[in-house]
C-alpha cells in the first residue's frame, strides 16, 4: 500500500497567487482530514470529510481557503489568493470509520511545505 | 479554547533512561486517546492508543497511562533510544462520533542523547 500521497511536496509561490494542494487517501478509507502545522499554532485541523462529504470546516481560516473531495480517491485544498502568513506544512490524513462508529487511527501523508513570498 | 494541551514544548533525556511525555485535556467526553510520533519532513505516524475504559496500555517500550479524574495522560518510553528523538503529539477523540476526528496537542519535541 502506497499510503497517503500528497503533491506537491514543496511549493513556493508569490503572494496573491492561487495554490492547489492535492491528496490521494489510502484506498478503502472513508474519512479524509486536512491539517496545517506551524510553529505558532501546532497541528490545526482545517476540514474533514466523511464519504466525500465535508463534515466540519470550522477550522478553515478564511474564505480564501476551500477544499473539495470529488471522489473517494482525491481531495484538493485551494488557497486563493495566497498570503505570506499561509506559509506552513499542510498535511492530509485518512482513516477508516466503520458503520459501528469505531474509527481506525489516522494515516498521514508526508505533507506539502508551502512558502508564500 | 485548546482542548488538548502538551505543556512541555521539549524534553531531553539520556539514552537508556525513561522519557515521560505529558498531555492534559479539558473535554471529559473524550473517550479515546492516541499518541503520534513525527520525524522531520515526514507526516505523523500512529504510536499507541488507549480507550477511556482502561488506565494503561503497553506496547513494547511504550506505555500510555490515563488518569480520567485528572484528565491527564502520559507516554512512558523505557528505555529511551536516540531513534526515539522526534515530535510527539497527543490526540483525543470521541469514538462513534465525528467521523474519526481527533483533536491534537501542539506536540513535545523529545531529544534522546547518546
Question: How would you characterize this protein structure?
Answer:
The complex is a heterodimer of chains A (117) and B (114). Chain A has no helices and 11 strands. With 117 residues, chain A is mainly β. The relative contact order of chain A is 0.33. By secondary structure, chain B is mostly beta strands. In chain B, 0% of the residues lie in helices and 54% in strands. Chain B has strands at 4-5, 10-14, 19-25, 32-38, 45-51, 56-59, 62-67, 72-77, 86-93, 102-104, 108-113. In chain B, the strands form 2 sheets. In chain B, strands 2, 4, 5, 9, 10 and 11 form a 6-stranded mixed β-sheet that branches. In chain B, strand 7 and strand 8 form a beta hairpin. The radius of gyration of chain B is 14 Å and the shape is globular. The N and C termini of chain B lie far apart (38 Å). The mean pLDDT of chain B is 93. Classes of the chains: A mainly beta (117), B mainly beta (114). Chain A binds chain B through residues 4, 31, 33, 35, 41-43, 45, 48, 50, 55-56, 91, 93, 95-97, 100-111, and chain B through 32, 34, 36, 41-46, 49, 89, 93, 95-107.
Low-confidence stretches of chain B: none
- Structure annotation, total helices of chain B: 0
Mean of residue pLDDT values of chain B:
93
Give the termini separation of chain A.
36 Å
By DSSP (H or I, 4+ residues per run), the number of helices of chain A equals: 0
Q: Largest chain interface and its two residue counts?
A: A-B, 29 and 25 residues
As a whole number of angstroms, the C-alpha radius of gyration of chain A is: 14 Å
Q: What is the overall pLDDT average of chain A?
A: 92
Q: What percentage of the residues of chain A does DSSP assign to strands (E)?
A: over 45%
The H/E string of chain B reads EEEEEEEEEEE
- Stretches with pLDDT under 50, minimum 5 residues of chain A: none
Amino acid at each position: 500500500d502506497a499510503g497517503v500521497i500528497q503533491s506537491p511536496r514543496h511549493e513556493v509561490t508569490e503572494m496573491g497567487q492561487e495554490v492547489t494542494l492535492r491528496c490521494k487517501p489510502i484506498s478503502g478509507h472513508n474519512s479524509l482530514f486536512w491539517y496545517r502545522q506551524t510553529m505558532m499554532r501546532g497541528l490545526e485541523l482545517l476540514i474533514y470529510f466523511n464519504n466525500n462529504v465535508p463534515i466540519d470546516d470550522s477550522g478553515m481560516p478564511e474564505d480564501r481557503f476551500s477544499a473539495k473531495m470529488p471522489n473517494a480517491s482525491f481531495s484538493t485544498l485551494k488557497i486563493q489568493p495566497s498570503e505570506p502568513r499561509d506559509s506552513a506544512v499542510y498535511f492530509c490524513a485518512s482513516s477508516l470509520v466503520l458503520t459501528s462508529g469505531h474509527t481506525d487511527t489516522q494515516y498521514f501523508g508526508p505533507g506539502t511545505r508551502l512558502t508564500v513570498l | 479554547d485548546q482542548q488538548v494541551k502538551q505543556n512541555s514544548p521539549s524534553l531531553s533525556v539520556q539514552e537508556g533512561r525513561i522519557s515521560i511525555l505529558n498531555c492534559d485535556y479539558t473535554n471529559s467526553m473524550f473517550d479515546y486517546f492516541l499518541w503520534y510520533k513525527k520525524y522531520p519532513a515526514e507526516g505523523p505516524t500512529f504510536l499507541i492508543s488507549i480507550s477511556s475504559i482502561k488506565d494503561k496500555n503497553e506496547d513494547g517500550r511504550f506505555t500510555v497511562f490515563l488518569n480520567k479524574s485528572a484528565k491527564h495522560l502520559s507516554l512512558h518510553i523505557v528505555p529511551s533510544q536516540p531513534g526515539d528523538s522526534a515530535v510527539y503529539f497527543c490526540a483525543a477523540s470521541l469514538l462513534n462520533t465525528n467521523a474519526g476526528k481527533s483533536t491534537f496537542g501542539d506536540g513535545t519535541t523529545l531529544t534522546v542523547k547518546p
